Structure prediction request, 148 residues.
Amino acid sequence: MRPVTKAVLRPEAAADIYPTVRRAFDLARAGTPGPVAVEIPAEFYLLTHDVADPSPGQYDGDRADATAQPGDLEQAARIINGAKKVLLYAGNGARDAGHVLVELAEKLGAPVATTLQGKGVFPELHPLWLWNGLGATVPSPLGTVADQ
Prediction:
């Protein structure tokens, strides 16, 4: 994922997941905003860990208004149109915009991957659909689906 992200982070222990995700958000917002990947080892999915609530004001940007502002769509279009390679990565937040996502992907000729939570927001039989999670989630002695 390095060619399309600002950084790829991987927590060393389950207790490091939350701080690693916070660091990823900070990196994504810093300087020129861009994607940051967090690779969480599959064995951590089975573990639970209590996380202390962040201090008030520690993550001020977390509750920003998600409403699009005038000019946001035009700015996004300029950025996408200027890109050499486009990948659409959709999560559960796109669940009510599936038809628009298909239309956008087809107009851009862009492949679409989804988060695990976003599985199903894009038709998985569509030729532009890649995979959910951008890779194998659980190690398998048989390799990934792409290897088979």
About this structure: The CA atoms of residues 73 and 132 lie 26 Å apart. The chain has three helices and five strands.
